[in-house]
Write a structure and sequence with these properties.
This protein is of the alpha+beta class. The chain contains 6 helices and 7 strands, in the order H-E-H-H-E-E-H-E-E-H-H-E-E. It has a 5-stranded mixed sheet, covered by helices on one side. A hairpin with a 3-residue loop joins strand 4 and strand 5. Helix 1 packs parallel to helix 6, helix 2 crosses helix 4 and helix 4 runs antiparallel to helix 6. The radius of gyration is 16 Å and the shape is globular.
Length: 173
């Protein structure tokens, strides 16, 4: 049933009628809400969360529900693939036109050859670790689809056991 729900979500995201709602919202608040919703998972892995968020709101344009899904999927993955008792860092900064959100965890390094495939539908990077996971390989594909619908980018680096996902959002003009 989880797979069917995810496929229906994907169908909705990819449909021609899907027009991303454009409204102003504070991306810091979204990040904090998602963090709180994942508190149980964070505590069960004994992660040390470091939030580097500006004190003032960071107002962006987009669909707040869709961006909440992006943040949830990225944080949930970061938690799943973090080494126990390791740091989980959430950073937010901006320049004149964009806000940048970074979610960084410590765990296994993603092989360089796997990075371009991470956002493919049904792709699971580490099949040996994925056997006991709940995922179906759609979370990062959904992230990429939502960000594409917003005209935004996402980048991934994974070196020496530290993996960092950084995505952009348009600032309120």
């Amino acid at each position: 049933s989880r797979l069917v729900r995810r496929m229906l979500d994907l169908s909705r995201l990819q449909s021609a009628e899907n027009v991303t709602a454009q409204e102003q919202f504070d991306v810091s608040e979204i990040m904090l809400r998602v963090l709180v919703s994942l508190e149980g998972k964070i505590n069960s892995r004994h992660l040390d969360v470091d939030t580097q968020l500006p004190e003032e709101p960071v107002k962006v344009w987009g669909d707040p529900d869709a961006i909440t899904q992006v943040c949830y999927n990225l944080l949930d993955n970061a938690i799943k693939f973090s080494r126990e008792n390791s740091p989980l860092t959430i950073s937010l900064w901006k320049d004149s036109k964009k806000a940048y959100v970074s979610i960084r965890n410590s765990g296994s390094t993603i092989p360089e050859a796997e990075i371009p495939l991470l956002f493919d539908r049904f792709h699971k990077s580490d099949r040996s670790r994925s056997q006991d996971r709940d995922g179906v390989g759609l979370g990062l594909y959904i992230v990429k689809t939502i960000l594409n619908n917003h005209g935004e980018d996402i980048a991934v680096t994974s070196r020496q056991g530290v993996t960092d996902f950084v995505f952009t959002l348009a600032l309120k003009p």
